[in-house]
Design a protein that fits this description.
Elements: E1 8-10, E2 25-27, H1 28-41, H2 67-84, E3 88-97, E4 104-113, E5 118-127
Length: 136
């Protein structure tokens, strides 16, 4: 197993290699990016052994889209990262409402990896409406 000073963890979503039945692992910046995506995707209370973990975005699904919602989303994401991802420092978080598809909000998080002082970013798509146009 590869050792990394930034961390190594299961890939997300967890996948198993068919050949040797080993879990796929990720390290370094990829581990941090997947960790952030998982953190933002998790609703607090979802993990039985760690009920505080997560970002409470799901409670905003039916809220009216306005500036107050935008600032609340930024605050929730920044707080979750501050509390649960000590490897990074958030530099900027912005929320972009799609004009083409008003059911999607993109959350852009720019951060610095503290250990290496390198900058990176993620874009998290937050869907305000459930999928109803399923093509089979």
């Amino acid at each position: 197993m590869q050792k990394s000073f930034l961390g190594t963890g299961w890939s997300f979503p967890p996948t198993v290699r068919e050949k040797n039945r080993a879990l796929d692992m990720v390290s370094d910046e990829a581990d941090i990016q997947q960790s952030l995506f998982l953190l933002i995707s998790t609703t607090p209370g979802e993990r039985i052994m760690f009920p505080e973990f997560g970002c409470d975005l799901q409670r905003l699904v039916f809220e009216r889209i306005n500036e107050a919602l935008r600032f609340e989303m930024i605050a929730l994401v920044n707080k979750a990262i501050y509390l649960f991802e000590p490897r990074v420092k958030v530099e900027n978080t912005t929320v972009h409402i799609e004009s083409i598809d008003p059911g999607i909000i993109h959350i852009h998080v720019e951060y610095t990896v503290i250990q290496t002082n390198s900058r990176a970013n993620i874009v998290y798509p937050f869907y305000l409406q459930e999928g109803t146009s399923v093509v089979l």
